[in-house]
Write a structure and sequence with these properties.
With about 270 residues, the protein is mainly α. It is about 70% helix and about 0% strand. The protein has helices at about 5-15, 20-35, 40-60, 65-75, 80-90, 105-115, 120-130, 135-145, 155-160, 170-180, 190, 195-200, 200-210, 215-220, 230-240, 245-255, 260-265. Helix 1 runs antiparallel to helix 2 and helix 3 packs antiparallel against helix 4 (about 65-75). The longest helix has 21 residues, at about 40-60. The two termini are about 25 Å apart.
Length: about 270
């Protein structure tokens, strides 16, 4: 099936589904298909229908847990100005989601998603959210990730360069969140240049990080990409690795790049 057909099927099924786990699974599939497999033009074409169904599902959800699932998906997919303006009002606490109580992590996620979309007040949203955060660990994590969301390419470059220092990779979940936003699909065209450099760092990542960090590092690096040129970068890297390159890392790259090869129509090496 084409990604557009998958999204269309999900939009028809979601309003009829009554099982909460099935709703959550369908929402996850919708988000994955939307960002990983639709082209930019296809996303723009289907976004109004996606937003309409998600907003209706949010309003109709009978429980707070279901509302949370619908809201999180809408927050992560939102494209149109009216929906983004509404989300900003929710973040500013001048509007609310009926039947859903938002906690500190929800406002943090809202601030990050609004910033990566470069809403007009993105810089103020980032700085204000930092002062709002009461939990010291969350505040430190937010400060670490924030440069990866900047609209200034130079600031994002500095963030990536900082990851070359092993001391800045100690908090691996922070690093992965920053990488995911650095490579967000909305920034994919300008972040593609980091793919080759991230692949080149993989051996060092294995030597200095957690057992599962290399896979997660490449997952985050490739998470927002679907272009043939990005796939070529990965294919070229695999073709040029030396004979003594660890087989486990080669398999890690192949596994992480699977969606990229599929979405770009590139033959798997």
């Amino acid at each position: 099936m084409s990604a557009r057909d998958v999204v269309g099927l999900a939009l028809r099924a979601l309003p009829r589904e009554t099982d909460e786990l099935n709703v959550q699974r369908a929402l996850t599939y919708t988000k994955q298909a939307f960002w990983k497999f639709l082209s930019e033009e296809e996303r723009a074409a289907v976004a109004p229908d996606v937003e309409r169904v998600l907003r209706a599902g949010l309003d109709a959800a009978p429980t707070e847990s279901r509302k949370a699932a619908w809201f999180a998906t809408l927050r992560d997919i939102a494209q149109s100005r009216p929906v983004l303006e509404w989300l900003e009002r929710v973040w500013r606490k001048t509007d609310s989601v009926q039947g859903l109580t938002l906690a500190e992590p929800d406002y943090i996620a809202l601030a990050l998603e609004l910033t990566v979309r470069e809403v007009p007040a993105w810089n103020e949203i980032l700085s204000t959210q930092l002062t709002r955060i009461e939990n010291p660990d969350r505040r430190a994590r937010f400060a670490f990730v924030a440069p990866a969301l900047s609209s200034d390419p130079g600031v994002r470059e500095q963030f990536f360069e900082s990851l070359g220092d092993v001391r800045n990779r100690r908090r691996e979940p922070w690093v992965l969140e920053g990488l995911t936003y650095l490579h967000h699909p909305l920034r994919a065209a300008v972040s593609e240049k980091y793919i080759a450099r991230s692949l080149a760092m993989l051996r060092e990542i294995q030597q200095t990080g957690d057992l599962f960090f290399p896979k997660r590092w490449i997952d985050a690096t490739l998470s927002g990409h679907r272009s043939p040129s990005a796939a070529v970068t990965v294919t070229r890297f695999l073709a040029e690795i030396p004979p003594d390159y660890p087989e486990r890392l080669r398999r890690v790259v192949l596994s992480s790049a699977d969606d990229l090869f599929r979405s770009s129509g590139t033959r798997r090496p």
